[in-house]
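STRUCTURE:
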């Protein structure tokens, strides 16, 4: 068969792998990203030699460019064609910022395609402008987060790695917070319950691995390994959240929970679905093992792929979009059923 370069294929060919099934998230530093022979590659220097490494863009969800990186216009064009989100960030993956909004917590350079799906955006805005329905969607999101966490923290893989949570303690947290989430009268109350749940999870995780006293510190203020790993790993989850929103055509400003306090709040909402379930236990495990940033990042990426986290985020956002419908839309169905 004749050889072809990537530029010979259309955007549909490059997107033949569904985003939810893609395997790779890349973090690069001290290299150049360019197009070489029709492929997107990153180049590192080894003495007088330049080493070229291929990036399989059709099987990649997001690309983090850290300290000492540069990227060419041609590479950005092919990455956008393949639907890969690109984010510029500091060393170790944090903080994340784009080329035009420096030091914003999440500001991805999304592929600029006007031909995104519209059905989920249209369903989303039908309920988004109604405070009550938006609260309903936020409750559903937090309930899914809690269910996912309870499921993932009891997997055999985590137990064998040394994160063996006592089932009754996890079940007690679920019994405590599930009713509070379901009955939250407003977003402020829901955010309060979320904060209390997160604090309880930190305490449970620290006790499970024997980490000792732990206090969650803001980015840059934490000196212990667990805090650094949590900051680092959460940005991987933000990458999945941004990818899911882009796949479904949902703007980042249409948040249901975090939108009033942070720009790009929908990314935070989406990342909540997998942060505690996947990133949190790995942060404490890696801290106890003395892993470096690269080893921790590799473990997180493997765990996110193994648990099909992007699939879960996309499916949950789709379900919220289609099930959180205004009363006017559901009334005929109820009448017919009656």
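SEQUENCE:
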């Amino acid at each position: 068969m004749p050889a072809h370069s990537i530029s010979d294929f259309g955007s549909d060919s490059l997107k033949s792998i569904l985003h939810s099934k893609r395997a790779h998230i890349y973090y690069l530093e001290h290299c150049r990203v360019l197009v070489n022979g029709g492929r997107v590659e990153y180049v590192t220097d080894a003495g007088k030699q330049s080493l070229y490494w291929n990036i399989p863009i059709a099987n990649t969800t997001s690309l983090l460019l850290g300290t000492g990186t540069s990227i060419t216009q041609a590479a950005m064009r092919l990455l956008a064609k393949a639907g890969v989100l690109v984010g510029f960030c500091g060393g170790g993956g944090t903080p994340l910022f784009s080329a035009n909004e420096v030091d914003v917590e999440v500001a991805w350079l999304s592929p600029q395609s006007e031909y995104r799906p519209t059905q989920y955006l249209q369903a989303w805005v039908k309920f988004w402008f109604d405070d009550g329905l938006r609260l309903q969607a936020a409750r559903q999101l937090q309930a899914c987060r809690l269910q996912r966490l309870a499921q993932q923290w009891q997997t055999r893989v985590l137990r064998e790695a040394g994160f063996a949570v006592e089932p009754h303690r996890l079940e007690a947290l679920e019994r405590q917070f599930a009713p509070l989430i379901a009955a939250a009268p407003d977003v402020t109350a829901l955010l309060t319950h979320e904060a209390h749940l997160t604090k309880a999870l930190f305490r449970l995780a620290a006790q499970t691995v024997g980490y000792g006293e732990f206090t969650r510190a803001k980015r840059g203020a934490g000196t212990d390994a667990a805090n650094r790993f949590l900051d680092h790993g959460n940005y991987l989850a933000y990458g999945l959240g941004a990818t899911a929103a882009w796949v479904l055509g949902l703007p980042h400003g249409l948040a249901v929970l975090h939108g009033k306090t942070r720009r790009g709040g929908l990314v935070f909402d989406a990342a909540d679905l997998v942060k505690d379930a996947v990133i949190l236990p790995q942060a404490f495990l890696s801290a106890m093992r003395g892993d470096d940033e690269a080893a921790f990042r590799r473990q997180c990426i493997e765990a996110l792929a193994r648990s099909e986290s992007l699939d879960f985020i996309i499916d949950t956002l789709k379900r919220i979009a289609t099930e959180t419908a205004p009363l006017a839309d559901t009334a005929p169905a109820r009448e017919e059923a009656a």
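REMARK: Confidence is low (pLDDT under 50) at residues 1-15, 94-107, 330-338.
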